[in-house]
Amino acid sequence: MGLIALWSMVIVPKLYPPKPLPPRATNEVSTAASAPPVAASNVEQAATSAPPVAPSKPVFVASGDEETLVLTNDNARYTFTSQGGGLKFIELVKYPETVSRSRKKQPLTNDLAGLNAHVSIPVLAVLGDESVQGDGIFTLTKTAAGGVRAEKTLTNGLRIIKEFKPTTNYLVSATVQLENTSGAPLKLPPQEWTIGTATPMGPDDKDAAQNMGLMWYDGAAKQEIAAPWFDNASFLSCVGATAKQPRSEYVAGRSNVVWASVHNQFFALVAMPQEPAQQIVSRPLELPRPGDDEIPPNQKNAPPPKGLQTAFLYPSVTLDPGKAVERHFHFFAGPKEYQTLAHIANRFQNNVDLVMGFGGFFGFFSKALLLGMNWLHHTFMLGYGWAIIVITIIFKVLFWPLTQASTRSMKRLQALQPQMAAIKEKYKDDPVKMNKKTMEFMKENKVSPLGGCLPMVLQMPVFIGFFYMIRSAIELRGASFLWVADLSRPDTLFTIPGTSFPFNLLPLLMGGTMLWQSHLTPPSPGMDPTQQKMMRYLPLIFLFMLYNYSSGLALYWTVQNLLTIVQTKLTKTAASVAPTTPQVSVLTPLSKKKK
Fold it and tell me: Buried b / exposed e across 206-240, counting CB within 10 Å, b at 16+?
């Protein structure tokens, strides 16, 4: 595990660095067709070497009645609001908010999966003081191009014009113009331009805090903050030690925010400015509590859900009379579907597919496994559960010779333990010589202490790739297999009477097969008997860790364990009929060759 951590933190960034952006790929500003090219006379940007400075939290103002406009296409239904003049809510028409936990039932609700749900601040609300907000009420109109225009003129002469147009692949193009219509220079303070708010997928999303967060890209690498980061909790605080003060906001960036995303487990809202934003800021936000009829019985006393409200930070600007500053954006509001995001990343050359979480060395395996699973599903019409089983079998067959050789090496090493113990006893007063003689003995008998670990190390990237892939693969959401209603969630059959503890069968099968496998696998030579017992019952720890995780991962691991058990038994059967390998006596001089 130490080698794997070292590999991912040190080696991978050198061998697999993120693909750099082409020069000025995100810095070319086009002129909106509806307005002449105008520019600010003075934009006061912070120096790139200056550290991020946390702004004061602006207050959202909307002191009038709300009007809404709704646009719908094949992928989504977009609701625009006059309060803040932005995109209030996105509903994905192909995805329900919740999926059935039983194969015989229909979806629990008819609600659609939504982004920026249950919040008052819309996407692209411009927040600051009175000089950029006013009363917060915009006039909404539909445009001839099939979009929405939000317009407002403040008492100081500032006119704010926003235009939105939904396009293909869950994209929305947007333009915001700040124009000085007065006869005097107009100085505007720093502003927050809202990206959106990460919210849970539904009222029964009990793992929302673990799967929800924000991500941004600086042109070289992605930065990610999960919701628990704001709680600032630690293991010591969980066991009664002094709790740390929760974090109130996250601020980062130095004029290099190429894109930013707020996301939950399967859906993302990504803002891609045509010019990199100066900074990004995110704050936790308490959401309205769902109604009693929407909350599962075991979560009635849970605290109110939280979201992460995120915005771009832009510097103060002085506009001369008749001048304006204009910014252009593309928003992706849709599922974390790899092929769609890869197409968008290729179009804008901005690596936005990193939203999937497939980065670095292990990301290569996640992409390969996802593409392979989808290929099996579409080509052979296999369900995703059967596709996972087929992929597991394929990898097991590929690793079969190596695993078989490793098992034989461990058995040979185990058979040589009496001689190795005698060497240790003979040279116990000279550790250097003892190690030298032991290595010579092992080399002469063609065994290696690392032989049994090699297959596990080589298969570890596949397992970790599966872990990351299953965590965000939208294809597994609602995919059923045998008694499993949703491969992206635990396969809860029922709740144990008198408790709120779920009975999940697949993790129990996984733990049972791991325990069986550990009793079939010969212990590592030289391991202390107490350590051997601990290693044999290590599967119970994995069972505890993964009990409430995705049933797709439990399915993969269970099938992997069963195949390993079959291979171990076949190897033992082959070894029992093979001739015994002659062993070298410890009394024979090690410098002489065997006759």
Answer: eebbebbbbbbbbbeebebbbbebbbeeeeeeeee
